[in-house]
Amino acid sequence: MHKITARGTHVLLVEMEDFEGNKASARYSSFSVGPECEQYKLTVSGFTDGGAGDSLTYHNNMKFSTFDKDQDTWPNNCAKSYLGGFWYKDCHSTNPTGLYRWGADSTIHATGMFWNTWRGVNYSLKSISFKIRLVK
């Protein structure tokens, strides 16, 4: 991702769908991922709402966390506790790489694929995709 976003300005479109067939999106006018020496730091700005709300800007300037490399600000490891690697700040704004579950389920607290500002942390989405495009 760093090599793709290192040159020029890239936009990010996040599209998602729930199990009832509802769709929403969030667009960011600037998106990039830093190099390995910066632990793949996320830089994102310029949110435009497509019905999903903004669950990503909160994670701006965070390094990528995984099960074996905790780089979030939470005392525990977000990636390990919530079962997916991401640019976590303190976990609960979005978890697009979480488990694939089936919609609403309060017993799975934040371990599914969720976008908090749209369906909340206990609703696992049917799909979520991150699409980037070079604009200049």
Write the layout of secondary structure elements.
Elements: H1 2-5, E1 10-17, E2 23-33, E3 42-50, H2 78-81, E4 103-104, H3 116-119, E5 123-124, E6 127-134
Antiparallel strand pairs: 1-2, 1-6, 2-3, 4-5
Explain what you see.
The protein is mainly β and about 140 residues long. The protein is built from 3 helices and 6 strands; from the N terminus they run αβββαβαββ. The strands form 2 sheets. A 4-stranded antiparallel beta sheet has the order 3-2-1-6. A two-stranded antiparallel sheet has the order 4-5. The longest helix is centred in the first third of the chain and has 4 residues, at about 1-5. The mean pLDDT is about 95. Keywords: Disulfide bond, Secreted. It holds the Pfam family Fibrinogen_C. It comes from Mugilogobius chulae (yellowstripe goby). One of its GO terms (biological process) is fibrinolysis.
Short description:
This protein is mainly β. The protein contains three helices and six strands; from the N terminus they run H-E-E-E-H-E-H-E-E. Helix content is 9%, strand content 29%.
For the CA atoms, what is the radius of gyration? 14 Å
Spatial strand arrangement across the major sheet: 3-2-1-6
List segments where confidence is low: pLDDT < 50 over at least 5 consecutive residues: none
Oligomer: single chain
Helix content: under 10%
What's the pLDDT, averaged over the residues?
Answer: 94
Structure summary, number of beta strands: 6
Helical segment count? 3
The outline comes out as: globular
Main sheet characteristics:
4 strands, antiparallel
- Which series of helices and strands comes N to C? HEEEHEHEE
Keywords: Disulfide bond, Secreted
Organism: Mugilogobius chulae (yellowstripe goby)
Pfam families: Fibrinogen_C
GO molecular function: extracellular matrix structural constituent; protein-macromolecule adaptor activity
